[in-house]
Amino acid sequence: MATKYDVQIATLQSEADKYQTELDVSPTAIGGEQSPTSSDVSTQIRLQNVKNQLQRVRDQSIREKWYGPTGQQGDSTEGIRTGVMGKALDVIARPLYGIVGGVEALLGKGTRSDPFANMSENIKSGKRTFGDLLKGSNVPYPISAPLGLALDIAFDPINWATAGTAALVPRIGAGLIKGASRGGLRGAIEGAASGAGSSLLSKASFAGRIGSKIIPGGGSDVSQKYLSSLYKKSIISADEYNSLIGKNMDDIVRKGGIPIGGIIGSPYRATLGDMVKIAAQKIPGGESFLGAFNYSNKDWMRLARIKDTLEQSLGSGVEMQGAVRAALRGESIEPFVLAQEQKMLRAKPVDINWSDDIPDVPDAQIDKAMADLAASSPMFKKIKEGIEDADDIMNAPSKFISADGVENSLRLVEEATGSSISLDDINRIYHSGELDETGVRWYDNMISRVKDFKVTLKRSNNQDKIYNVGKATLDTYHSFINFFKVSKVAASPSAWMNAVVGNPTMFAMAGGDILDPKYFSRIKDGSRVAFGTKTSDSVLAELLDGGEMGGVMRNEPSAFTRTLGISPEYLSMRHLLERAVRSGKDAGLLAGDVNKNEIAKSLQEALDKINPIIASSRSPIEAAEVVSKITQEVAKPGRLPSSVSFAQDILKQRGTISAGDLPTSFAANEIFGASSASAKTLNWIRDEAAKPNASMGIKLINLLTNKALTGYDRIDQSYKIGTTLYLTKDGVTERELNAFRRLIDIQPEDIVSKTPEAGVYRYHLSGSKALELANEIYLNYNAMPAAVKVLRNIPLLGSPFASFMYGMALKTANTAVYNPSIFNKVTFALNDFGGQETPLEKEALKDKYYKRLNSPAMFRTPFFDENPVYVNLANMIPYYSFNMFNPSERKYADIYPNNFVNYIDKSPLLKDPVGSVIFDYFIQPAIIKNATPVGSFGQPLYPYGAGFGAKSLYAGRTLLESQVPGVLSYLGLATPEKYAEFAPSYRWRQLSYAKAGKGPYGVSGKEPASSRTLRGLAATVGIPVQAPVNLEYVKKKINSNK
To answer: Which of 16, 135, 500, 1039 is buried most deeply by CB count within 10 Å?
Structure first.
């Protein structure tokens, strides 16, 4: 579309070309050592002046193209709106702001002399912390930042309420009260001193442990001797304090919270989810309604245990889905069980020669020993009860064993889970959430009818052609949406960065201590296993050592495999081979250079020899094939099979997947569990890329899809494996245990051991409880309710990332109830470690161009006072990045019908790429009044005054962008500026323009090209650095208003 500037631009370009030609032909102008003539210098000056004029005209042309005749972007965003989450964060931080305001006034540092007036001012507008107070007192940044944060946390009333006696002030208060009740004034003083001393010693032990690792000489014998003494004193002090207030482990896990059912003294304390369920049970239809929205890891673990118990009771080889369907029809499951029994009967029996010299032990002696063991440990008590139950069954089997195999299995399930179970429940386990289903009957039936829609084309030869239009359309649509997810998550460096930072944030939200070096050390161990480093075998061996996780692996294989992404068979074989090599070397039977890969190769050769011998026995052959496959995998120097390959293999073998088959990861559920068409396409891509003659094109596509999904999946896998190791092997502190028991039901018997370490007690959880907690801490995509699956899958109206939004919304709600102090810790840390705003900067933040920097998720980097720089951390901090709480930045006047757009933005509807494009480019322009349509971030969608054809082209570009992998944004570095507008990715265009010192629409600015390019690269990897605040602009604006 021609503009009034085209002629002017052409004239200036012609003049610039003329001056450039004069310089090119001059023998003294370009290159060489000769001095330029005065004519050369004046020609270059004229050229630069013309180029600057040409750029100004082009900039104005581009501004008017996108923003209209004024050439300026309208103030549609009205600055940053914090939404519900931002307002809530401000409210819970106010108690600390009040305390800081009072301290400021007492020290003469406040804006008001009256303490109460200064407290009120700081709560309403100042929002200063102890970090600000220290900075204002000229305390150096390396001291003011960490010390200020420590003071903020120590004096934050929200932290007192959350941590209880694990926090300094409540600990002193509890000691004072208990001491006074026992010894009056002197007892109160001693109790307060005990609380303060034990807390400070614990903190000193933590600081000493960190310091010994980072300070030179920290590992010396003298330092370690001093630390050992400090740790001992800390433990003694903690024991004395707990004795004073009468606190023990039972109190930690059982006190606090709400007694289940309101019964005082109940050993199990209700969680927020429990209370919602109790309320739903009292409302007609409430349970059914809640079931469609219920995201419960507790229920997920229960169903996984039911599945494991069923398969163990009937036999792992029984075809469970067929057996369940038969039972529901009232038919016998005997054919399915007999089929497996026939397999076992064909296997050759193994003779075991028992020793004849086992001495007889009197029954009374055995009974006494069992009673002593039962009294010594809850675990042995359960073993004794199990033996007694087995003895009762053997003596009178008819009382306990039914002729009906289904009934026996249900009894075993009820015994294992402690709750009743029906065939309908079992049917849901094996058949709900099958591929292309959500579990919501009306929706699944509707989709099924659409898929059955066919069109018949009549032909003259009477051979009519039938086209399954419905299925083809939906398959194409769902594949489009799933490849959008792959492109924007798995193939996006920024999404990887968000996962790396977001997972530990979720750990902190649950109450975990992310400052504990042991936690990140275990996450590193988890990544070694997930990504297959050379040390992964030693980590796997440690996971199984001690028998705790080994027992879970055997008894709860479904939860173990689907949580950690590790096959028990694979892990057992690797561990077995590792132990065999180690034992062989220790016994001198193997050479020192023999490794497990050689052992695996030998085992494979042995299997090849014995397979023909046992050809008539199908069961051993199946076992041999399993071992064969595992040994082949073990012999490879690579990694554990990922959740992605796990889902792909099931799909390839069965042709379908049910929810009960899938791991808990994003890729397995949101990609392979959401659409059969896209899942099968990904399988085809993987198989084609694996062929010897595969083209580079298919290999690149496989890299950007399957391999990208696998890599992204391994990040989540790393955190779940690492956290499980942390909970079982390292143990949690009292403060962490106090937080975790609010999320899940932790009983004293779930704590395997309590050990003193580095000045604190650490509580080691059982393997089963660790798996349950790992799923509770991080997102379990396999536990998503049916309603969320509908929202995720429904065409046009849906939201592809509904699972993340919903899961994080519930986690944020749980955190608000059980651990709200973490919100304040993050807020205070961003403030205390950030730079201080200068007067000019504060004025700049009032301007419409900089208002967005007032968002609570913006981190003001320190040291850049002349050109303040902010980093947007919203996507790294999970509770900031879901649209349910954080509204989009698009806002129109609150009049009908404009406010309809605002309502859509606040809802999870029309968030898929097709639906959002239709809404943004066609519905929105048709309904709003007196405003220019903008995108969800306040950006122009298409040129000002564009017609339907132009709008359609830009809509098509936006739709294409949804399929472009984020990693391809780096191509912007190699894309010439003149082609930037045609690049099918915002980041791609941004980098292309940045090289020339221009913004994402091609308008030049004062920011250097190098700075723009670095910011573009940072944004591409998930660190969105904002443009520096131009204080000169603010200064000129202030002066012009005088």
So the answer is: 135
Preceding omega of 748 cis (within 30 degrees of 0): no
Report how far residue 828's alpha carbon sits from residue 836's, in angstroms, rounded to the nearest whole number: 13
Please tell me the least confidently modeled range out of 8-12, 46-50, 423-427, 505-509.
423-427
CA atoms in the 13 A half-sphere facing the CB of 806: 24
Please answer whether residues 786 and 806 qualify as being in contact, where contact means their C-beta atoms are separated by less than 8 angstroms: no
d(CA 434, CA 610): 39
CA distance 479 to 912: 12
Mean pLDDT of 699-709: 92
Find out whether 898 and 925 touch, Cβ atoms under 8 Å: no
Dmax over Cα atoms in the chain, in whole Å? 118
Spatial CA neighbour of 738 closest among 1040, 512, 978, 573: 512
> What are the b/e assignments for 307-346, b being 16+ CB within 10 Å?
bbbbbebbbebbbbbebbbbbeeeeebeebbeebeebeee
Residue 840's pLDDT is 87
The residues near 399 (Cβ < 8 Å, ≥ 6 apart) are: 392
Can you name the residues that pair with 765 across neighbouring β-strands?
A: 751
- Bridge partners (DSSP) listed for residue 732: 763
How far, in Å, CA of 222 to CA of 316, rounded?
Answer: 58
Which residues, in sequence order, are CB contacts of 58 under 8 Å at separation 6+? 5, 9, 1002, 1004
CA atoms lying within 13 Å on the CB side of residue 685:
22
Q: What is the pLDDT of residues 405-458, one digit of tens each?
A: 455 555 555 555 555 565 555 655 555 555 567 778 888 889 888 888 888 877
DSSP string of 97-137, one letter each residue = HHHHHHHHHHHT-SSSSSHHHHHHHIIIII---HHHHHHHT
Most trustworthy range by pLDDT among 164-173, 255-264, 347-356 = 164-173
Beta strands in 145-263 (DSSP E): 258-259
Model pLDDT for residues 477-536, shown as the tens digit of each residue: 988 999 999 999 999 999 999 899 999 999 999 999 988 889 999 999 999 888 877 677
Residue with tokens 């021609």: 2
CB contact set of 91 (below 8 Å; sequence gap of 6+):
none
8 A C-beta contact, residue 173 and residue 158: no
Q: Please name the helix (run of DSSP H) or strand (run of DSSP E) that holds residue 250, with its range, or none.
A: helix 249-254
Q: Which residue would you say has higher pLDDT here, 397 or 842?
A: 842
Residues 6+ apart with CB under 8 A from 1036: none
Q: How far apart are CA 669 and CA 783, in angstroms?
A: 10
The pLDDT tens digits for 274-289 are: 667 777 677 776 767 7
Determine the pLDDT at residue 606: 54
Other CB atoms within a 10 A radius of the CB of residue 413 amount to 22
Angle between helices 986-994 and 1009-1020 (to 10 degrees): 160
8 A C-beta contact, residue 1029 and residue 853? yes
From residue 149, alpha-carbon distances to 126, 134, 215, 984 in Å are 17, 10, 21, 44
Assess whether pLDDT exceeds 80 at residue 689: yes
